[in-house]
Amino acid sequence: MEDGKIEYVDAESLGFRLAADLYQEELNANNRPISTQCPDLDNALRGGILLGAINEFVGQAGMGKSQICMQTAVSAHFPPGMGGVGGEVVYVDTEGCFSTDRIKSMIDAILRDHLKNNLRKSDGIPSVNSIMDTIYTYRCLDLVQMTSAIHGLESFVDARPKVRLVIVDSIACHFRQDFEGTNVRSWTLNDIVVVFRRLAARGIAVLVTNQVTTRFAQGTGSSYMASALGQSWSHHCTNRVWLYRDAEDRRCAHIFKSPYCS
């Protein structure tokens, strides 16, 4: 203020943002989910795996975690009208579950369904090989290889801006080895979380799977199943889905945590 006059300063020039604008940006970044190719699961997740978020599937072996990852990887290539985002995928495989035969079968099935339902729209449909050429895989045999691959993701994405989905199946596999101390384990996990958050901030969907372990309740000694990486890790995930079988041996999914689902 000078000589009794009030000067108005542009708030945006000082770095201020309106909450409404930020909210709209979040909606725009996450309004094109990637289909898991499981209709019921997609409906529960409001369309599928959200961009700009860390998505986690937890469950015992045989619950379909890797199947969901591969189906989502295939979906990502297709345009929004076919459940994808027209992007590329990085698939970090720590358990050796990635299968090119299964990927090919999934692609064949999607293309058949599309051609069946869109007989007059077959022009421009990608080939199986062209889709597989957009999925970059990295097989990690130990924790060192896994952390190295994850820390290299940002540089990889810089060189390939079409990447819209990063999958780590599973994040818990190599953390079951012995560590020198819990601090080392926590530091390693925190470093990984930093990378995942940076990828999500760029509008990339991060999809990880987590194993389960048996824990014992204090006092009672009763056992229960819990995610392998513990409670602190779970706080970093935007969306968490627990896969299990019910009393009738049916596969079920419980949306354990999600700001987008009521």
Automatic annotation (TrEMBL):
One of its GO terms (molecular function) is ATP-dependent DNA damage sensor activity. InterPro entries: HR_Repair_Mediator, P-loop_NTPase, Rad51_C, RecA_ATP-bd. Pfam families: Rad51 (PF08423). Its main location: nucleus. It is found in: Nucleus. It comes from Plectus sambesii. GO terms for cellular component: Rad51B-Rad51C-Rad51D-XRCC2 complex; Rad51C-XRCC3 complex; replication fork. One of its GO terms (biological process) is meiotic DNA recombinase assembly. This is DNA repair protein RAD51 homolog 3.
